[in-house]
Amino acid sequence: MGVTMANLHKIKVTGFGSFINDEAKNGKLVGRFNNLSDSVNAGLAENLERLINNNVLKENTADKMRKLFYNNPLLNITDAVLVHNDFADWNLLTDGNAITGIIDWDECVGGYAVEEIACWSTFFEPERLNKFLEGYFSVTDKPENFEEMFELLRLRYTISKIALRTKRYTYEKTDFLKGMIEKGTKHLEASIKYFNL
Fold first, then answer.
1. Burial group, residue 196, by CB count within 10 angstroms (0-12, 13-18, 19+)
2. Pairing state of beta strands 99-102 and 80-83?
3. Are the CB atoms for 91 and 8 separated by under 8 Å?
4. Spatial CA neighbour of 78 closest among 9, 12, 167, 15
5. Is the pTM of this model over 0.85?
6. Which secondary-structure segment (H or E) carries 62?
7. How far apart (Å, rounded) are the C-alpha atoms in residues 153 and 147?
8. Could you say which DSSP state residue 11 is in?
9. Three-class SS of residue 13?
């Protein structure tokens, strides 16, 4: 899986975030934002407000998160790659020995490779991460600031997912969604501890 994702990330695109439809019609993948920082911070205020209103976060913790993301020099990245954005077991085809295809491209975006790794890590138990990273970095160089970027982008992904799930839970009160919110909250607590928020 790591090798396959790393090879996917060799596909360069222009810009970050969701792709502009008019450009896609012309055969070009052009994201809506010029840099990673603008992409990561898009919607952050709304996401954090939702988590405060649903008693997932306290205001002072949300303020610290805003400061962590806004004007963070780690996010000053302008070279984007194709990010599947839902790269997981259930979207990979295999012949039993090797990955033969990737499906479900509806959430793909222009992004930074570490974003996708951070996203992937929230789907599975931590034990899978080391082997995955071993495969990933067997075909590409490891960024100098990988751990901090990984934790930062994992936190952003977690904020987004919990905000989406709490919104959905207001009209679809299922045990499944409640469990997903609880799982996300555990990821959030780990990030709060990592960044001492």
1. exposed
2. unpaired
3. no
4. 15
5. yes
6. helix 59-69
7. 10
8. S
9. strand
Helix (H) or strand (E) holding 176: helix 175-194
| Torsion, Cα of 175, 181, 182, 185 (10° steps) | 180
The Cα–Cα gap between 107 and 117 comes to 15
The 8-class DSSP code of residue 144 comes to: T
> What's the Cα-to-Cα distance from 134 to each of 10, 54, 75, 138, rounded to whole Å?
17, 38, 24, 6
Residue 31's DSSP bridge partners are: 19
Which residues, in sequence order, are CB contacts of 169 under 8 Å at separation 6+?
A: 177, 178, 181
**3-state SS, one letter per residue, for 89-138:** HHHEEECCCCEEEECCCCCCEEECHHHHHHHHHCCCCCHHHHHHHHHHCC
Per-residue pLDDT of 129-154, as tens digits, reads 999 999 999 999 999 999 999 999 99
